């Protein structure tokens, strides 16, 4: 309950979670911590969420990015 209220308060001030899963990797909003099998340069999994205040990034999202692996 407290976490829900905290998130609502942040939203009122313009803080938003950065949506990353399924999107093209953007080094300005994301930090790649692992490369996994998947579609090239597409975010496969979010490990730690990122946040933005209006147009400024407060914290980059830590993500796993796909790469086509060749045998």
SSE order and pairing:
Elements: H1 2-12, E1 15-17, E2 30-37, E3 43-48, E4 51-53, E5 56-59, E6 61-67
Parallel strand pairs: 2-6
Antiparallel strand pairs: 1-4, 3-6, 4-5
Describe the protein's architecture and organization.
With 71 residues, the protein is α+β, with helices and mostly antiparallel strands. It is built from one helix and six strands, in the order H-E-E-E-E-E-E. The protein has one helix spanning 2-12; strands spanning 15-17, 30-37, 43-48, 51-53, 56-59, 61-67. The strands form two sheets. The protein has a three-stranded antiparallel β-sheet. The radius of gyration is 14 Å and the shape is elongated.
How would you summarize this macromolecular structure in one to three sentences?
This protein is α+β, with helices and mostly antiparallel strands and 71 residues long. The protein has one helix at 2-12, and strands at 15-17, 30-37, 43-48, 51-53, 56-59, 61-67.
